[in-house]
UniProtKB/TrEMBL annotation:
Listed name of the protein: FHA domain-containing protein
Provenance organism: marine sediment metagenome
InterPro entries hit by this protein: SMAD_FHA_dom_sf (IPR008984)
Amino acid sequence: GTYINRSREKEKILKNNDEIQIGRIKMVFLSPL
């Protein structure tokens, strides 16, 4: 049970990091326009 919880927490962190990086990429692409 604890292993599944840990993996889910890691997935949440990875998803948050992905969203942050996507946001940065969007900022970089949209800022020159």
